C-alpha cells in the first residue's frame, strides 16, 4: 500500500447529493425526535406562533418555531449556557443538524436569529410550550400532583456588580469612593486608597433600594449559593416529589424572600396542573413541602383550608423568648400555624422532607450546574424567564427519555448504553449460527464482554 500524502485542499465545484456528508444520527436525539414528531410538536408550536407573524406571505420567512425551540432544548441536553455556544455546537454536529431538521443546503441559524425570534415571541408562548411538555409527561404517568416540593436557588445575572449606580443620582460606586476620599483630605486617591477607604468606611452596605445596574434593571444584589455577592435572579421550582417533574419554574427578583415569592409559584403550579386535570381540590388536597424560609403567618393563613396541605418547616425561635407565640386575637393565623406544626410531627412529613431534599436539589443541579444555567447571558427578567422555561422543558423531556430508554441526557446515554451487534458464523453448507455481542461504549478496546448464541438459521 502506498503512503497517502496531504495535499493542498481544493474546493469542489459540484457535488452530487449522494456525496454530501451525512450522519448516522445520535440514538438519543433520534429517539427524542420520534417523541416530538409523534406528539405533533412542530404543528403545535407553529399554531401558537402564527398570531405573532404576518398573515400575508410577505418578506423573508422566519426561523421555524420548532427549530428555535429545538435549539434551546439542545442548550439543556449539551449543558451550554449561551445562544452563541448553541449555534457553534449545532453547526459542529451532523447528528444535531438531523435533530433540527435542516436540509442539506440550509445553514444553522445564528445566535442573532435566535435573539430576534425570542424577542418576537412573548412569554405566553414559551409558557404554552412548557405546558405542552407537561401534557406529554402526564400521558406517560410522570405527574402525580400529590406531593409538591418548593425551593429556590440563585442564577448569576449578566451584569457587573462594579458598574452599579445610585438610583437617585446615577453616581457610580467608584465615583462615590473618589468623592469620599476627596472629602476626607486625599486629593488624588490611588486604587489602594480607594480599597482601604471602602474597607473601613462606616455603614458600608449594598442595598437594592439604593443601587441598581444600568444595563439590567431587573437584576438584584444577592448572595449566591457559594457565598459570593453578585447581581442575580432567583429561579424557583415546584417539583412533583413522586416523579421529579418540575411543574412550575418562575424567575423572581433575587431580593425577594421565599415567603413573598411562594404565592406566585403556587398560582403557576395550580394553573399548569389544571391544564392536565391534576389540580388539587379541597376534597383531595395536595401536600406542599418547603423549608423554613417559606414559613410565615400570612402565608400559612392564606393556605389554610385551601387545596394545599402545608408541611413547611418551622424556624428556630429566637433565644430568650422560649418559643412563646403572641397572636393578638388572630385566631385564623394561630390555627394555620398549629395545624402546620401537627403535620410536621408525622412520619409522612419526615419522608416528604427527605424526598424534597433529594429530588428538588437534584433538579437544580441538573438544570443550573450540569445544564449550564448557573449564569445567564441574557438581560431582563422576561428574557431570562423565556430561556429558563424551555431549559426546564428539556429537563422534563429528559424524564420521558429516562423512562423509555434509561438515559435522560446524551452524555448519560453514551456512558450507560452498550453497543449491540450481530455476528454470523457459517457452520456447514446449510446452517449458520447467529451471535449477539455486547460491547460497552466506555471500554477502551473493542472486546466483547458477553457473547450469546441466539440460534441456528438455515440458508
Structure description:
Helices cover 42% and strands 16% of the residues. The chain has helices at residues 27-38, 41-49, 65-78, 83-91, 94-99, 111-120, 123-139, 173-183, 191-200, 258-275, 297-303, 331-344, 347-369, 381-405, 410-416; strands spanning 147-152, 155-156, 165-166, 211-212, 220-223, 229-240, 246-248, 251-253, 286-290, 308-312, 418-426, 431-440, 450-458. The longest helix has 25 residues, at 381-405.
Tally of helical runs: 15
List unreliable stretches of 5+ residues: 441-454
Q: Structural class of the secondary structure composition?
A: alpha+beta
Proportion of residues in helical segments = 40-55%
Brief overview:
This protein has 459 residues and is of the alpha+beta class. Helix content is 42%, strand content 16%.
Task: Show the helix and strand layout.
Blueprint: H1 27-38, H2 41-49, H3 65-78, H4 83-91, H5 94-99, H6 111-120, H7 123-139, E1 147-152, E2 155-156, E3 165-166, H8 173-183, H9 191-200, E4 211-212, E5 220-223, E6 229-240, E7 246-248, E8 251-253, H10 258-275, E9 286-290, H11 297-303, E10 308-312, H12 331-344, H13 347-369, H14 381-405, H15 410-416, E11 418-426, E12 431-440, E13 450-458
Parallel strand pairs: 1-9, 9-10
Antiparallel strand pairs: 1-6, 2-6, 3-4, 5-6, 6-7, 6-8, 11-12, 12-13
Helix pairs in contact: 3-4, 3-14, 4-6, 7-14, 8-9, 11-12
Amino acid at each position: 500500500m502506498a503512503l497517502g500524502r496531504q495535499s493542498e485542499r481544493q474546493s469542489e465545484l459540484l457535488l452530487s447529493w449522494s456525496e454530501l456528508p451525512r450522519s448516522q444520527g445520535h440514538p438519543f436525539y433520534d429517539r427524542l425526535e420520534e417523541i416530538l414528531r409523534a406528539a405533533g410538536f412542530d404543528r403545535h408550536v407553529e399554531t401558537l406562533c402564527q398570531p405573532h407573524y404576518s398573515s400575508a406571505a410577505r418578506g423573508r420567512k422566519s426561523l421555524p418555531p420548532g427549530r428555535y425551540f429545538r435549539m434551546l432544548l439542545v442548550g439543556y441536553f449539551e449543558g451550554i449556557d449561551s445562544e452563541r455556544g448553541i449555534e457553534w455546537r449545532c453547526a459542529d454536529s451532523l447528528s444535531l443538524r438531523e435533530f433540527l431538521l435542516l436540509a442539506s443546503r440550509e445553514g444553522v441559524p445564528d445566535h442573532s436569529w435566535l435573539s430576534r425570534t425570542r424577542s418576537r415571541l412573548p412569554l405566553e408562548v414559551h409558557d404554552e410550550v412548557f405546558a405542552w411538555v407537561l401534557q406529554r409527561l402526564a400521558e406517560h404517568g410522570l405527574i402525580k400532583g400529590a406531593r409538591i416540593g418548593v425551593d429556590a436557588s440563585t442564577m448569576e445575572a449578566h451584569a457587573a456588580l462594579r458598574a452599579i449606580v445610585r438610583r437617585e443620582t446615577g453616581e457610580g460606586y467608584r465615583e462615590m469612593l473618589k468623592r469620599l476620599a476627596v472629602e476626607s483630605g486625599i486629593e488624588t486617591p490611588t486604587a489602594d486608597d480607594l480599597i482601604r477607604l471602602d474597607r473601613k468606611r462606616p455603614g458600608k452596605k449594598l442595598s437594592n433600594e439604593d443601587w441598581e445596574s444600568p444595563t439590567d434593571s431587573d437584576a438584584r444584589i444577592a448572595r449566591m449559593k457559594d457565598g459570593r455577592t453578585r447581581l442575580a435572579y432567583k429561579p424557583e421550582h415546584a417539583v412533583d416529589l413522586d416523579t421529579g417533574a418540575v411543574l412550575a419554574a418562575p424567575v423572581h427578583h433575587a431580593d425577594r424572600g421565599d415567603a413573598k415569592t411562594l404565592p406566585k409559584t403556587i398560582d403557576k403550579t395550580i394553573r399548569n396542573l389544571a391544564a392536565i386535570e391534576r389540580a388539587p381540590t379541597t376534597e383531595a388536597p395536595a401536600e406542599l413541602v418547603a423549608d423554613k424560609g417559606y414559613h410565615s403567618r400570612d402565608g400559612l393563613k392564606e393556605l389554610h383550608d385551601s387545596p394545599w396541605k402545608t408541611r413547611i418547616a418551622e424556624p428556630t425561635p429566637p433565644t430568650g423568648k422560649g418559643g412563646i407565640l403572641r397572636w393578638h386575637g388572630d385566631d385564623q393565623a394561630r390555627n394555620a400555624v398549629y395545624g402546620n406544626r401537627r403535620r410536621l410531627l408525622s412520619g409522612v412529613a419526615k419522608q416528604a422532607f427527605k424526598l424534597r431534599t433529594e429530588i428538588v436539589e437534584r433538579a437544580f443541579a441538573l438544570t443550573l450546574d450540569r445544564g449550564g444555567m448557573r449564569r445567564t447571558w441574557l438581560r431582563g427578567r422576561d428574557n431570562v424567564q423565556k430561556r429558563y422555561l424551555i431549559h426546564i422543558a428539556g429537563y422534563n423531556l429528559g424524564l420521558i427519555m429516562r423512562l423509555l430508554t434509561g438515559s435522560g441526557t446524551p452524555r448519560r446515554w453514551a456512558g450507560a448504553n452498550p453497543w449491540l451487534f450481530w455476528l454470523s458464523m457459517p457452520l456447514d453448507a446449510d446452517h449458520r449460527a447467529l451471535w449477539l455481542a455486547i460491547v460497552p461504549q466506555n471500554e477502551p478496546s473493542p472486546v466483547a464482554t458477553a457473547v450469546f448464541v441466539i440460534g441456528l438459521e438455515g440458508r
